[in-house]
Amino acid sequence: MAQLTIRGLPEEVDRALRAQAARHGRSMEAEVRLILRQALILPTETPMGEAMAAIWRQSGITDEEQAFLEGTRDRRAHEPMSFE
């Protein structure tokens, strides 16, 4: 396994990293490993629009049915809820 030394880490980054590691119950080293792994290795989340398009494709719904369903949405502007 490789080792990494980071020089010149700003004080505020060091403090934030230590605090985050403590909140998660991990060592600072383990926290850095996880952060790097999540940033570089794990797949990123799919944007909402792409996820919804994939669901439409997988459902087998036709383009005409999709157009009909999209046309049935209420597109009127709504007033925000009042809590008074």
UniProtKB/TrEMBL annotation:
Q: Which InterPro entries match?
A: Arc_rbn_hlx_hlx (IPR013321), FitA-like_RHH (IPR053853), Ribbon_hlx_hlx (IPR010985)
Q: Where is the Antitoxin FitA-like ribbon-helix-helix domain?
A: 2-40
Q: What is this protein called?
A: Arc family DNA-binding protein
Give the domain of life: Bacteria
Q: Name one GO molecular function term.
A: DNA binding
Q: Does the keyword DNA-binding apply?
A: yes
Q: Write out the entry's keywords from A to Z.
A: DNA-binding
Entries under Gene3D superfamilies matching the protein: Met repressor-like (1.10.1220.10)
